[in-house]
Write a structure and sequence with these properties.
This protein is an alpha+beta fold. It has two domains: 92 residues, Monooxygenase; 163 residues, Galactose-binding domain-like (Jelly Rolls, Sandwich), CATH 2.60.120.260. It contains seven helices and 15 strands. Strands 1, 2, 3, 5, 6, 8, 13 and 15 form an eight-stranded antiparallel beta sheet that branches. The chain has a five-stranded antiparallel beta sheet with strand order 4-7-14-11-12, with no helix packed on it. Strands 9-10 form a two-stranded antiparallel sheet. Strand 11 and strand 12 form a beta hairpin. The relative contact order is 0.14. Pfam families: PP2 (PF14299). It comes from Hibiscus syriacus. This is F-box protein PP2-A15. InterPro entries: F-box-like_dom_sf, F-box_dom, PP2-like.
């Protein structure tokens, strides 16, 4: 009896299977339903899972529909020179273009596109007059520098962007800070002595696109010492938009009955509207 049982166990052991026996095609099919971070974790299990994670058709589903445009414009390469996994990995890094004044990246979790425009790419009234504005270095900006307003009567900031976005709804923000940031003895400081005038009249924000969308809003600037994302408005890119969309945006407070000052203009931030409830910093 004992010999029979032993023989049966030996026979069964010949048909035992493990993760190494799962066909790569099956693994790749499963990957298509997972987020990129989950794929990367599973790829560490063994060689089969790692090889399956390299399949182009897996990462094709994670990339935005405009990824070929991004590779050419942002990475400066031909789309077919990179495998799809490498394309996704490189587009997830912050990539600067247009002389380093703009930065674009993909959200690693969902492959959604985000874009930032530095203050140096904006048209700011009086920016060349040191009596009104200065560019100051700071570690609190992804562009390492911000435009700081000391005092002015006519406040106006205007920007334009022409870019090919994947279809979807997008939100546009101005990233602003009341007070002058600095660092002392290794600690972040904020001087609010020059902050004034923003509680008298609201700032007017405007957004328009080449597809005929327009939106405007007004808001008082608030909370000195904090970086705030002021929502300008939303715009929609439709499925049939296979060409770049031109966007114009602005913020102004041109009531010349009083001066205003003590404001840092860092950048303009564009992200999918579904990200609006997220904490950006």
């Amino acid at each position: 009896m004992g010999v029979g049982v032993s023989g049966l166990s030996a026979a069964d052991s010949q048909f035992e299977t493990g993760l190494n026996d799962v066909p790569e095609g099956c693994i790749s099919s499963i990957y298509m339903f997972l987020d990129p971070p989950e794929i990367c974790k599973l790829a560490r299990l063994n060689r089969a899972f790692r090889r399956a994670s390299l399949a182009d058709f897996v990462w094709e589903t994670k990339l935005p529909s405009n990824h070929r445009y991004l590779v050419k414009k942002v990475l400066g390469q031909t789309p077919d020179s990179l495998c799809k996994k490498e394309t996704f990995a490189r587009l997830c890094r912050p990539n600067r273009f247009d002389g380093g004044t703009k930065e674009v990246w993909l959200d690693k979790q969902r492959g959604k596109l985000c874009l930032s425009v530095s203050a140096k790419a904006l048209k700011i009234t009086g920016i060349d007059d040191r009596r009104y504005w200065n560019h100051i270095p700071t570690e609190e900006s992804r562009f390492e520098t911000v435009a700081y307003l000391q005092q002015i009567w006519w406040f106006e900031v205007v920007g334009e962007l022409e870019f090919e976005f994947p279809p979807g709804s997008y939100s546009l923000f101005f990233r602003l800070h009341l007070g002058k940031p600095s660092r002392r003895f290794g600690r972040q400081m904020c001087n609010v002595d020059q902050v004034h005038g923003w509680n008298i009249k609201p700032v007017r924000f405007q957004l328009s696109t080449s597809t005929g969308q327009e939106v405007s809003s007004e808001c008082y600037l608030y909370d000195s010492g904090k970086w705030i994302y002021y929502h300008v408005g939303d715009f929609v890119v439709t499925d049939d938009s296979n060409s770049p969309v031109k966007i114009k945006f602005s913020m102004m407070q041109i009531d010349c009955t009083h001066t205003k000052g003590g404001l840092c203009v860092d950048s303009v931030f564009i992200c999918p509207s579904e990200f609006r409830q997220m904490s950006f910093d």
